[in-house]
Amino acid sequence: MLKQFIENSPDSISVYNKKLHLVEINTAGLDLIQKTRRQSIGESIKTLAPDVEKSGLLKEYKEVIKNGKPFISEDVSNPRQIGNKQFSVRAFNTEEGLAIVTRDITALKKTERLLIRANKRLEELNYIAAHDMKAPLTNVLSLTKLIDESGGIKENCQELFDKLITSIKRMQHTIHTLNDVMAIQEDLLPIDEELEFTEVLNNVKNNIATQIIEAKVTIRADFTKAPYINYPQFHLQSILQNLLSNAIKYRDPNKEPLIEIETLKKDEGWYLFIKDNGLGMDLNSSKDSIFRLFKRMHTHVEGSGVGLYIVHSLVESHGGTIEVTSEINKGTTFKIYLGYE
Fold it and tell me: Least crowded by CB within 10 Å, which of 121, 270, 330, 340?
């Protein structure tokens, strides 16, 4: 069964002895080197792949035989022998010597380049839509203000004019919010640095000091189980600030607001827990959409619906995950896996 699997594999699979002479090869491998089995078995890898030494692969293969550590390369070009193609190569030690699995990724790489170009064009369009509309909207708002101050609006039209100004301000707020989101997306993977959770939290508390004082909120933090983390400061600060701001904004007016923060370090990485005793959310019908852009679970207070979207984007950019549990009038808990160093 194993021989049948190897023979039918679309990937080139070849086995060499310790002197790097071919011992076995499947049909896909023969197609790749453009030789018959009789022409290839027993031949040196230099004969079968003339570019192997120049490309640096020969050195890597010898290291695999010597040290037993697998070699993996996701982008190997071979223009000389079989045309301008790209391959992924995996080489690992065997009892005979060396096994090499080669996959043609030319089409995949072409699609990848097309997607990158398409994404770049979309980013440019988003930038034009969000950034270049800021100035005209500001001008419109200024003009409406001048018209109002000059008394150019009839009394019976004042209510309609006020609604127009409100609509313009909402559009302006949306445009500014989109710019903030794009700024986050453009800088998703900055350099990690060793951070102290207490220090980052203090920075956040200073930034939202007015909110904390006005809401009379108590913040309890326990970082004893994981006081430090390697993470981009801007990202960790943004995660904490957005979640704390949400907890304050959606506090229960009938309770003394309390936010509890805890960190934990396990074998798989760092965890951050943020729990509040606020209004809570009904997640039965919207658990999958809570992190969508402009999604709002409460509408009785002002908000843009981008905070959780930003948190989710930042966490996922580092290979992390975020889970939420909540109950109406009992509060919300966010469990965030921040990833591994």
Answer: 121
